[in-house]
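>> received
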Amino acid sequence: MLKLKPRGKSVKKGEHLSVETEFKKGHRLQTGDNHWHRNKERKYKQHGYYEVFRPNHPRTNTKNHIKQHVLVMEEKIGRLLTKKEIVHHINGIRSDDRPENLYLFADNRSHLIYENNLTATYKKWIQQDYNLSSEG
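>> returned
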């Protein structure tokens, strides 16, 4: 049985006053087949990218997850990607894994050239916009 703390005492991190405060409002205890450890197809975001559990894929990380945009691109082109190939999100939204939003670069060098040109173009547009607004 959980002991209640006397009133006026502060609660330290990790301590709970009662069973009702065990979980934050709206959270549910996940047990059995609903527990996230058992839900192997569950997607989760890592640095904005969705990852999917695929233990037999050659490009998985140490936890047997692979980024979803890699799987989408492999399905789109009909083969596995090489280690050098880079999948780029055209609109810059990392969680937007629609096939029409993905572009395949042959290597990181060509991807960096594209990104640097894009950055230079944005800077030029911003400078032009600033010059137009400061003249008026």
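>> The helical segments are 68-77, 108-135.
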